């Protein structure tokens, strides 16, 4: 078989590249080793008809109008602002930490200036900020760090806050006011009919062929291509020749609760200190679906299993850099996405990276 472009992976990175390359007139074959499109953003109805995200809760948010406009060609949207509560000392308190969190935790009634003064008093002056521990201590001090961040991080990564780059915990801001949204981006929406429908629309061109349950390493010699877009793990492409890049995995435990309208007050509740799981997602909040029962999912982080997260820390970054050097020397292969670039990208960042990759190829 001969195509202009072979795209390995039908997640956001692969689907955006395929869509753009096909629009520029190329024939494209998309393969994925899973039996569905959408990568980790895939969604589907469970056995009870509730639309769930089998690979973890996916909430679309971006500040980039260009990326929002691009995706809007393939889907209508449902306005949704994500809110997350953390279960701490038997209370459900907003995370990111805000005025409500601090007043609720300590039984205070401080105004915004009072919260600012409190945080100024407890912040640990650290300069430069290198680790996630530095980042959290420098913004909320020891007590809030221990109650909201230390345990969650240990579960999520199997590492202490001090062993992760600052960028990980820096994803979570600290607020002195009452804004309890998880994200403050300009565009926060869910695809109205779900992510899988969005991917179907992206891959609908007659110039695109999709082959599922197909592993690149099994079929690479049977397909001829002018250009390859690879969105799988970067180290795997090179046979792990410099050693393995660590990727963190997750085990998902689904539960359907018949006859219960809602299980929890918001889409996501985090459990920083109790249980082996990090968080519970209740999908109906995310999708707005009306149904008699509800479906929830617990996430158990683990070292082995499918790769989901790069693990941002200096030694991993150094190893990734060595692989990126090999990748940069390729003339007929592009590497794009969370696994192939070894970057802790959100969906919009993957879309942005993919659009740039294909623009460089003239698409
Ligand atoms: P993937 O979606 O991982 O797609 C790569 C595809 O390549 C996979 O389908 C894989 O099967 C395939 N593949 C790999 N190797 C091979 C091979 N050898 N042969 C064939 N196919 C192969 N982002 C947000 O913006 N908001 C969120 O709320 C959010 N929540 C998340 C929650 C969780 C639990 C996780 C893990 C991620 C979350 N993300 C979120 C990030 C988001 O999932 C990613 O940014 C995005 O989906 C990555 O797209 P991708 O195409 O790079 O990778
Ligand atoms: N985090 C935490 N407590 C929380 C939420 C997040 O300690 O209640 C830390 C933890 O290290 C986590 C990181 O912040 O891995 C990033 O959180 P985010 O919600 O962005 O993670 P993701 O949704 O990507 O898994």
UniProtKB/TrEMBL annotation:
It is an enzyme of class 5 (isomerase). Residues 148-344 form the UDP-galactopyranose mutase C-terminal domain. It holds the Pfam family GLF. Its cofactor is FAD. It comes from the Bacteria. Signal peptide: none annotated. Keywords: FAD, Flavoprotein, Isomerase. GO terms for cellular component: cytosol. GO terms for molecular function: flavin adenine dinucleotide binding; UDP-galactopyranose mutase activity. Its EC number is 5.4.99.9. SUPFAM superfamilies: FAD-linked reductases, C-terminal domain, Nucleotide-binding domain. Belongs to the UDP-galactopyranose/dTDP-fucopyranose mutase family. This is UDP-galactopyranose mutase. It comes from Prosthecodimorpha staleyi.
């Amino acid at each position: 078989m001969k195509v202009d472009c072979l795209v390995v992976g039908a997640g956001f990175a692969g689907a955006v590249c395929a869509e753009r390359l096909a629009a520029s007139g190329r024939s494209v074959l998309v393969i994925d080793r899973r039996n569905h499109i959408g990568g980790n953003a895939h969604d589907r109805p469970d056995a009870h008809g509730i639309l769930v995200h089998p690979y973890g809760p996916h909430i679309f948010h971006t500040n980039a109008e260009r990326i929002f406009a691009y995706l809007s060609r393939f889907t209508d949207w449902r306005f949704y602002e994500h809110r997350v509560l953390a279960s701490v000392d038997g209370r459900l308190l907003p995370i990111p930490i805000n005025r409500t969190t601090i007043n609720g935790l300590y039984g205070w009634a401080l105004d915004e200036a009072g919260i600012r003064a409190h945080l100024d008093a407890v912040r640990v002056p650290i300069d430069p900020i290198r680790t996630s521990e530095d980042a959290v201590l420098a913004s909320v001090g020891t007590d809030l760090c221990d109650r909201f961040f230390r345990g969650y991080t240990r579960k999520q990564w199997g590492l202490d806050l001090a062993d992760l780059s600052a960028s990980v915990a820096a994803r979570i801001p600290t607020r002195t006011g009452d804004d309890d949204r998880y994200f403050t981006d300009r565009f926060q929406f869910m695809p109205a009919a779900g992510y899988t429908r969005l991917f179907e629309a992206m891959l609908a061109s007659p110039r695109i062929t999709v082959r599922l349950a197909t592993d690149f390493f099994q079929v690479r010699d049977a397909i001829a291509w002018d250009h390859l877009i690879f969105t799988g793990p970067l180290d795997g492409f090179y046979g792990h020749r410099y050693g393995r890049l660590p990727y963190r995995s997750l085990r998902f435990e689904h539960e359907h609760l018949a006859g219960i309208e809602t299980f929890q007050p918001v889409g996501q509740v985090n459990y920083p200190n109790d249980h082996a799981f990090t968080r519970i997602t209740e999908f109906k909040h995310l999708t707005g679906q009306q149904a008699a029962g509800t479906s929830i999912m617990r996430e158990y982080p683990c070292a082995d299993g499918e790769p989901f997260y790069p693990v941002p820390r200096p030694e991993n970054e150094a190893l990734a850099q060595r692989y990126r050097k090999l990748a940069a020397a390729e003339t007929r292969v592009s590497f794009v996405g969370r696994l192939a670039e070894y970057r802790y990208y959100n969906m919009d960042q993957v879309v942005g990276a993919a659009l740039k990759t294909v623009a460089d190829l003239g698409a």
